[in-house]
Structures are given as C-alpha cells and as structure tokens.
Design a protein that fits this description.
Number of helices: 16
Strand order of the largest sheet: 2-3-4-1-5
CATH class of the largest domain: Alpha Beta
Helix content: 55-70%
Order of helices and strands: EHHEHEHEHEHHHHHHHHHHH
Structural class: alpha/beta
Number of strands: 5
CATH topology of the largest domain: Rossmann fold
Shape: globular
Number of domains: 3
Length: 330
C-alpha cells in the first residue's frame, strides 16, 4: 500500500484517462482561483528535475496547496532522454515530500522500467495509476454513460459497431462521439444509428486494414486493390499495413484452430478478448477455409514483409502482387 498520498504516478497509453486523473487531483486540491498561481506544469524532456523539486519545496502562493505536474517522465522508462536527470534528487523527495505540494508524475508509456531504483521507490511509496487500454466491457459501459450524459439513445449493437470502427482508445472514441452529439444537437429524437456512424465516424487503421483482409479472403481482388490504394492515399506506410494484415491473418488462424478443437463463440470471445462483431466476422471467414490455406497465406505474407523491408521495388508493389495472387487461388 502506498504511504505517500501527496505524490501520484500516472503512466499508460490512454491519454484521456491520464488527463481525467490529473483533472481529478487538481480539482480536489485547488479552487479555480488557486489554479492561477498554484498549478504548475513542467515538461521533463526540457526541465531538469532539480528545478521541479525546488518548486515543490517552495510554499504555495496564497493557498493551502500547490499542484505540480511533471509531464513526459521518460526517465521512468527505457526510452532515451533528451536531458540527463539526477534521479537521486527525486528519490530523496519521494522519501521526504512537502506536505503542501501534490506532485503528479506522468509518462505516456505502456510500461515502466521496473529495474530502475526510482521506479521501485515510487511503486513502494506513492499512488500508482496504470492508464492503459480498458477492456471491451469497460469501453462499452463508458460509451453508454457518455450517451446518457448527453441525452442520446444508443443500442448495444451500435455500441459494438462504434468500437469495431474506432477501436478501444478512449481519446479517439471521445472525439468521434462528440461529432455525433453535435450532429444530433437540434434533433428531436437523439439516437445514434448505424447510418449516422457510417456518415460521420472515421475508420481506425485497424478497421481499414480489416476491410482489406475481408476483401482478400473473399478473393475480391479489385476491391482489395482499391482498399490498398485508399490506405496509400492516407500515407499509411506499407510496412505498417503488412504488420496489421499479418495480425489479422494470425487471428483467423487462431480462430480456425480453436473452432476445430470444439470451442464455442462465447469461449473464443473470452480467450481472444475480441469484440462480438469482429469475432463473428472472423468465424464467418474461416468457416469455408482450410487450416493449411490460412497457414499458406500467412507464410506468403512473411515473404511480402521481406520485400517491403529490403526489396528494390516500391514497397506497395509487393502487397499488390500478394493481393493479385488471390485471383488465381480461388
């Protein structure tokens, strides 16, 4: 259990959750008037830790507390830093913090470097919040609460479609839902429908490549080439496309393997942590495919990966040839 409640560590890839936590602690200790003088933010890629700690040890100005936010604390991870930090200063402060300062350390990284002395000390003594991707159930509940707060109706099926289209990143979901709320602002019947999603919601990279996978596995070569062209117009690198495509094919291989072992849809959903729509689609694709066929597709894609990384031609040309090979394999 953390012993020091005046120091908070926030890390993870979910910026929305990190900012919500920062707002919670800031509002808990500072009034709106106090924020003008006693809310200070440092970018730790540009500031030495000694300057931030010196500020933390200075009394607040006309208030009981001051909140100091240390952004981009890359020194807690394995990433390279712009400037060298004397972390002994921070460790000493963690052990003897100022009672009037709320110190919030933040880094937008999935993991911390557990080998570092400062990370061990933080985990031992302070409040630590991991702010990474929520589970599908948590995301579904979050979307429902956001809609209810804005007086908008939405079905469970539509929630699943939004997650399938946008992904599980709360920041992206917040932006896309806001578009819907603005669109429905003057409508008497405020309902998010599939038609509205198709009209105004952006597709995630994952979703765009899933469409490409769908066309390839259905042997729709022309549609697949057009989907690739669309990704290219969005300046998505060929290597990224191949990586996401390989992930989708590995998923199809997993689903097929588990289906042949007799696992039911609910079991697969829990084992693979998949959204219902995505699992249903994967099951439909592999139903008419042989296991060896899926393995061959994945093996051929590894050759495409080599071409994209080291080949003499345009990286996209190797993906195009891969797609064209499906015109012969039906």
């Amino acid at each position: 259990m953390a012993d020091n409640h005046n120091i908070i560590l926030l890390y993870g890839l979910e910026n929305y959750i990190i900012n919500e936590r920062i707002n919670f602690y800031t509002n808990k200790f500072l009034s709106e008037e106090d924020k003008e003088f006693n809310l200070i933010t440092y970018d730790m890629q540009e500031t030495v830790i000694s300057a931030a700690i010196e500020d933390a040890e200075t009394m607040p100005f006309f208030g009981d507390y001051k909140v100091i936010i240390l952004r981009n604390c890359k020194f807690l991870t394995g990433e390279k830093q712009k400037i060298e930090q004397n972390l002994d200063i921070l460790i000493n402060y963690i052990e003897n913090p100022s009672p009037f300062t709320i110190l919030i350390l933040e880094t937008p990284n999935e993991k911390l470097d557990e080998r570092k002395k400062v990370v061990k000390k933080l985990k031992e003594l302070v409040k630590v919040h991991e702010c990474n991707q929520l589970s599908i159930q948590e995301v579904e509940n979050w979307i429902l609460r956001e809609c209810q707060k804005n007086g908008v109706k939405i079905s469970n099926e539509t929630i699943n479609k939004i997650i399938d289209r946008v992904g599980q990143n709360i920041t992206n979901l917040k932006n896309e839902l806001q578009k819907c709320f603005l669109y429905l602002h003057n409508e008497q019947e405020k309902v998010i429908t599939d038609e509205l999603i198709n009209l105004i919601m952006s597709r995630s990279l994952e979703d765009n490549v899933f469409v490409l996978t769908d066309y390839i596995t259905a042997y729709k070569v022309t549609d697949a080439l057009q989907a690739l062209a669309d990704l290219r117009k969005q300046n998505i690198e060929a290597q990224i496309i191949v990586g996401v495509l390989a992930g989708h094919l590995r998923l199809l291989l997993q689903v097929k393997t588990l289906m042949e072992k007799g696992y039911a849809q609910n079991q697969l959903m829990n084992m693979l942590n998949l959204k219902p729509f995505r699992l249903k689609k994967a099951m439909q694709i592999v139903q008419t495919k042989k296991l060896e066929e899926l393995k061959l597709w994945l093996m051929k894609l590894s050759e495409v990966d080599m071409g994209v990384k080291r080949g003499p031609n345009s990286p996209y040309s190797y993906i195009e040839l891969y797609i064209l090979s499906f015109g012969k394999g039906k």
